[in-house]
Amino acid sequence: MKFGSISPHQEIDFSLPPDHPDTIRTLQKNASDEIKVFIGCPNWNKANLKGFYPRGTKDELEYYSRQFNAIELNATFYRIFPPEQFEKWYDKTPGNFRFFPKLNQEISHWKRLNDDVAPVVDRFLHSVIHLKEKLGTVFLQMPNNFTPKDLDRVINFVESWPKEIPLAIEFRHTDWFNNDNVSKDLYQLLEENTISNIIVDSAGRRDIMHMRLTNSQAFVRYVGTNNESDYTRLQDWVERIKHWKDSGIEQINFFVHQNIEEELPLLSAHLIKNLNQVLEIDLKIPNEDPGEQQTLF
């Protein structure tokens, strides 16, 4: 994941910004007594998750879905798969597993939410609904150069989105969050339509760490730097998630990216272990070996 990458000697303040003033209000408005937590990687490909799969693993997804309870399905960004493919993925995974598909690039990057995007959205959704109850939140990632001048496109897209399918949106241009008038309109739009405002924690883009939740779910895309600081950053997230739980958040969707992708499972396992303790939940720790203490560094 090259987005937000930094030079090796660049100094970054990795501390999490305070929550937006309206975040807790949003959580308390629909407070939940229980919390659901989904944690996963960007893909299950063996070429990227080197060392994760035991020798002789025949089906990567089948094994992955017994270690993690979620996948950030980035493959759907590049290709709209036929319904039959989603049915196969559904059949291979346990009942508690969730897929979080990324909307296809034709929607976000080629047509850029233009008026003629509806047929592509319909074709995409016609396929992903075959995941049935294993369909998590669909997410839309807009390109860096998609600016607030096209807010009308976002309004039309959001208001036409089928309400029965959860949606999250990621904006990357800084003006969405650092222009008070724009951000106010955006947050109101997302909140009124129960759409998650994706938080991206990337080293080189601290300007978009808005910390504004717009519904009862947090959708976080975390990008590590292949450094020991990744542990400290994740611990800060554990504490923030605990705060959100105390404020009534219903669901956490947290996906870990790492430039050295074979280390993804270790970093994710570290996060899960600590969340299990502070949230008093019992998520499986991937590839847990009680006799061996694993570390990234």
UniProtKB/TrEMBL annotation:
Lineage top rank: taxon: Bacteria
InterPro entries the record matches: DUF72, UPF0759_sf
Region (Disordered), start-end ranges: 1-20
One Pfam family, short name: DUF72
Full protein name: DUF72 domain-containing protein
Natural source organism: Winogradskyella aquimaris
Taxon lineage: Bacteria, Pseudomonadati, Bacteroidota, Flavobacteriia, Flavobacteriales
